[in-house]
Each structure stands twice: as structure tokens, then as C-alpha cells.
Write a structure and sequence with these properties.
By secondary structure, the protein is α+β, with helices and mostly antiparallel strands. The protein is built from 13 helices and 22 strands. The strands form 6 sheets. A 7-stranded mixed β-sheet has the order 13-14-17-12-20-18-19. A 5-stranded parallel β-sheet has the order 6-5-4-10-22, with helices on one face. It binds flavin-adenine dinucleotide.
């Protein structure tokens, strides 16, 4: 009888790592002698702590050529640059990587700085210095992905080759565990070196990187069909290219404005707004793992919550176990919070976005008309949050129990948010938009407390505001050519264009664009 291609084994209490033992268990499970078993490789690993026992699920491939297969093709030497990629986030970087695999040269331009000087600017932000509009948690080498949490889960498996992206990251210094973990995670202490290593490999292939290069315009040739021929930078210089990939992320409001002025079609889309919620991690571990909370092999517990309130989704977003809340604004005078963690996920806190879905009709109702109304609304909320926090990146915050009881907090527990918190009534910040965001959050919190007993506690705080979950605007592209229907040669890509939501999907979208460009002859 032929052997199965893969087999899943369950182990209670402890995870065996001895290779001979594991081969023996797999052999027994498929009914052959160990000596007759072809090579096996661990392909997926997950832990389940439900039902009072820690169980390890291991999925093995049978007949695998080796345990870690990093056989995906490398970039090769590229020809002269013919593509301009705007944005060095996951979409832009992986687009360049895939182009280089096809031998196609490109120039990546990014308004921000390389990782090292960028890190210096982030430190300043934590000390309360004003945000640099070109160098912050969203802008700079590696984009919003570099100092992110580095969770690599995605539901976008159909949109590209997840394994390929994971293998590339592993080859550039990400831990090999991401090849098998069901919930792969890198952490923001390791991401900068991964991003740097990717750049160095691309530079060796002949790809050009330009930092501190903010794109302010597109070069356009008006022939039979309007066509883009390059980009204009803030210093007045120009870079020419046959194709322009626009991968500027979800915060590039100036790019949307520039596109609208050039007559490039934009569409409003749904997005989400809300707060970050932070609990002590041991509390979340107790809720999620019960009596097993102190089991040494269990990671800091994650959670995922979702509920519909008055026809709008309220959900946890980008949950960071053992993480930190960080100031992620891109503009002085505005406050945005987000979450990240280090690879060990060892901080005392668990934070997560807790956001409410916003539809284009809500934006209109709140008095922000037009295609860019969603961006105006985001910026308005961020300004109110900045003022409520009292400036210097201090964030307005309320205990969860006070928020549910509709009152301000007079004191706050300790938090991972370094720039400091101001005890306020956060509902007033959210209500300033005239949308029922605070009420929906309150209703959902009551439900979440039933799903996770103890979730609503005075030990937990809400910190404002989580406003950059995704872009409120989509830049439409032709389903076949992936170009803007209004401008030949312009390829909107990644999260900012509305085709991705997270590191993995943005990277896969960039690669898809690259393959399309390669298919039309670079
Ligand atoms: C703190 C934080 C934590 C996160 N955690 C996770 C996580 O754990 N997992 C996950 O999947 N996602 C996470 N994300 C989201 C993830 O980082 C983004 O979804 C992803 O980076 C989007 O990729 P992108 O390439 O489309 O755009 P971005 O990464 O946003 O990159 C856009 C780039 O374009 C550049 N740019 C913008 N405008 C211009 C211009 N005019 N000229 C030149 N360059 C320009 C910017 O400098 C930036 O580098 C997190 C984000 C943040 C901020």
C-alpha cells in the first residue's frame, strides 16, 4: 500500500524532539518499519491548551527531500533599472526581490531612512520628541513591517505563495521556527536585520535603493493612452522608468491627494477605528489556559474576539501577546497607537487593537464628504486624541471598567506605553466624530467578557486611538493587467492600494505585480 504524503501526530504534556523517536512514531503510525520509512520533515507545529491538557500537534511530510527546504530561487544579476518602486515596505521589497529573480532591475525609493537611523528617530518618539513625518513607525526601510509585531499569519493563502515568502525571510535571518509554526512570529528585535539582509542581497544583484526620497509627483506622457514614465521627488529631481509600482502603505494621504489631482480613479472602502486594549499578560494566560497558565512550554497567550453590534463588526486586531503599545503616528499633532512585541514575547503586557468597522456611508454621515473623507476623519480623530493626551506622544487612556461605566478614570495602572498616559474619558475622544464607536465598543466588551471571563477588569486599560488598521481608500487596478485603468504603467500595490492587510499579503501582492511586469517583458 502506498504511504500517505503526510501524517499528523499528537503528543500530550511534552513535545518530543528526538529524531529517532519521532521517526519511530511516524513509522508505527503508517505501519512500516523505521528502516523502510523514507525521509520525513516536520511541516507544521501547533499547541493546544484547551480541555485541561497541553497537546502538541506535529504534521510530518513523508518522503521529503530534507528537513528544511530553502530551495526557492535567489535574485540574479539584474539589468539597468526599468521599474521605479515607491515604498520599501513588504510590498515594494518583495516586488523588487521577484523582479530580480527575473533579472529585471529596479530602483526602490522611500521617504524614510534605513533601519539604523530610523531606530534613533523611534527612540526619540518614546522620549516625547515630535514625530518626524518621514521617519516613524510607518515610514522608513522595511515600511510599517520593520518595527511591527512581525506576526506572519495570513488568511490570504490563495493570493500567493506563503511558503516562498517565509523561506525568503528565513534565508535572511528570521528564525527557522517560522517554517513550521502554525502562528509564525518574528518580533521587532529581529525584523530590522532581516530587512537589512534582504536589501544587501538585492544591492549585490544590482537593485538601487534611495532613502530620504519622497515622491511628490508622477511623470506622465499623454499619447494615445496616458502613460506614466517615472516619478518626481520632493527635491525636484526625477527618476524615469517604464513602470511605476506604487507601494506607499496605508498612511500615504499625500499620495492619494496627488493621484486624485492627476485624475487617477480612487474608491472609498471600509476600514476600522477604535483603541488598543492592554491587560497584564498573566491575566490573559489565566483566562486562556486556566490551570495550565504557568506551564513552561506554553507561549504568552493570544486571543481573537469578534462580535457584530448594530450591523458593524467590532473585533480584536493585531493582538500582541507579551508586547508593547507604541506611538505610530506619521504626522506632528496627531496621535496613533499600535502594538508590537519582541521575539520572546516576554513583556508583562498583552495588547490588542479593539476596533469598530467603518463604512463609507458612516464617513459621509459624520460630515466628511468625498473620496478622501475617510482620511480626513482618521486625521480628525488623531488630532483630538493628541490634544486629549496633552502632547509629547502622551496617549489618552481609560480603565476598561470606567469605560463600560461611562466615566473618566482618575488613576491608571502601569502600562507598556513608554511616552506616558493621560487619565481621561476616552469615550469623549471617540464620540467627537459623532459616530457611535464608543457605544459599540461598550456593547462588544460586555460580550467579550462573557467569552473570556475577566476580560473587563480594572487592571485593563483602553488607549487611544487605533486609527490606521487599513486604508480608507482603494486605488483600483485592472483585474487582468494589474495597472491603474487611468494610467498605463502604474501598478498600485500592497496595503495602501487596498490589496493587502498585513506583512504576508503585502509581500505576496508585490510579488504578483513583479510577475505581471515580467510577463509583459519587464
Ligand atoms: C506597529 C505596527 C505593528 C504591526 N504588526 C503587524 C503584524 O504583526 N503582522 C502583520 O502582518 N502586519 C503588521 N502590521 C502591519 C504591516 O506592517 C503592514 O500591513 C505592511 O507593512 C504593509 O505593507 P506595504 O508594503 O503595503 O506598506 P508599508 O509597509 O506601509 O510601506 C510603505 C512604505 O512607503 C513609503 N512611502 C510612503 N509614502 C511615500 C512617498 N510619498 N514617497 C516615497 N516613499 C513613500 C513609506 O516610507 C513606507 O516605507 C503592523 C504595523 C505597525 C505600524
Amino acid at each position: 500500500m502506498p504511504l500517505p504524503a503526510e501524517i499528523s501526530l499528537d503528543f500530550a504534556f511534552d513535545e518530543p524532539t528526538d529524531e529517532a523517536y519521532l521517526r519511530g512514531r511516524v513509522a508505527r503510525a503508517v505501519g512500516v518499519a523505521s528502516s523502510d520509512l523514507p525521509p520525513i520533515a516536520l511541516r507544521k507545529r501547533s499547541i493546544d491548551a484547551r480541555h485541561g491538557v497541553v497537546r502538541f500537534h506535529l504534521l510530518f511530510e513523508i518522503g521529503a527531500s530534507d528537513a528544511v527546504d530553502l530551495g526557492a530561487p535567489h535574485p540574479r544579476e539584474v539589468g539597468p533599472s526599468r521599474v521605479v518602486i515607491v515604498g520599501d515596505g513588504p510590498a515594494g521589497l518583495f516586488c523588487a526581490y521577484e523582479l530580480a529573480r527575473h533579472g529585471i532591475g529596479c530602483t526602490i525609493v522611500d521617504r524614510g531612512k534605513p533601519v539604523q537611523p530610523r531606530r534613533h528617530d523611534l527612540k526619540g518618539l518614546h522620549k516625547g520628541e515630535p514625530v518626524d513625518a518621514d521617519s516613524n513607525y510607518c515610514y522608513g526601510e522595511g515600511g510599517a513591517g520593520t518595527y511591527s509585531d512581525g506576526k506572519l499569519y495570513t488568511r490570504a493563502h490563495k493570493r500567493g505563495n506563503v511558503r516562498d515568502v517565509i523561506e525568503i525571510l528565513t534565508r535572511h535571518g528570521a528564525p527557522e521556527s517560522i517554517l513550521t509554526d502554525a502562528r509564525p512570529h518574528i518580533g521587532s528585535n529581529r525584523l530590522p536585520q532581516v530587512v537589512t539582509s534582504l536589501r544587501e542581497e538585492l544591492e549585490r544583484s544590482g537593485v538601487t535603493f534611495r532613502f530620504g526620497a519622497r515622491v511628490v509627483g508622477l511623470l506622465i506622457k499623454d499619447d494615445a493612452r496616458r502613460r506614466v514614465t517615472g516619478v518626481r521627488l520632493a527635491d525636484g529631481s526625477e527618476i524615469e522608468g517604464d513602470h511605476v509600482v506604487l507601494a506607499t502603505g496605508h498612511s500615504a494621504s499625500d499620495i492619494y491627494l496627488m493621484l486624485a489631482e492627476l485624475g487617477v480613479q480612487l474608491e472609498p472602502k471600509s476600514f476600522a477605528l477604535g483603541v488598543r486594549i492592554e491587560h497584564p499578560q498573566p491575566l490573559i494566560n489565566r483566562i486562556q489556559y486556566g490551570a495550565l497558565a504557568s506551564h513552561p512550554t506554553l507561549p504568552a497567550a493570544p486571543y481573537r474576539l469578534a462580535e457584530t453590534v448594530d450591523e458593524r463588526g467590532v473585533f480584536s486586531f493585531c493582538m500582541c501577546p507579551g508586547g508593547f503599545i507604541v506611538p505610530a503616528s506619521t504626522q506632528p499633532g496627531g496621535l496613533v497607537v499600535n502594538g508590537m512585541s519582541l521575539s520572546k514575547r516576554s513583556s508583562h503586557y498583552a495588547n490588542s487593537g479593539l476596533v469598530v468597522g467603518i463604512e463609507p456611508a458612516d464617513v459621509e454621515r459624520a460630515g466628511f464628504p468625498g473620496i478622501l473623507g475617510g482620511i480626513d476623519l482618521q486625521r480628525r480623530l488623531e488630532t483630538v486624541a493628541f490634544q486629549a493626551g496633552g502632547g509629547r506622544s502622551r496617549a489618552p487612556a481609560t480603565r476598561v471598567t470606567d469605560f463600560v461605566a461611562k466615566r473618566a478614570s482618575s488613576t491608571l495602572p502601569a502600562s507598556s506605553y513608554v511616552p506616558g498616559l493621560a487619565a481621561v474619558n476616552l469615550a469623549e475622544v471617540l464620540d467627537s466624530l459623532g459616530l457611535p464607536i464608543a457605544n459599540r465598543l461598550r456593547a462588544a466588551l460586555r460580550v467579550f467578557d462573557r467569552k473570556m471571563r475577566g476580560y473587563v477588569t480594572e487592571e485593563a486599560i483602553l488607549v487611544g486611538v487605533e486609527s490606521r488598521t487599513s486604508s480608507p481608500v482603494r486605488v483600483p487596478r485592472d483585474a487582468e493587467t494589474l495597472e491603474s485603468p487611468d494610467l498605463q504603467g502604474l501598478f498600485p500595490a500592497g496595503e495602501g492600494a487596498g490589496y493587502a492587510g498585513g506583512i504576508m499579503s503585502a509581500a505576496m501582492d508585490g510579488m504578483r505585480i513583479a510577475r505581471k511586469i515580467a510577463s509583459i517583458g519587464g
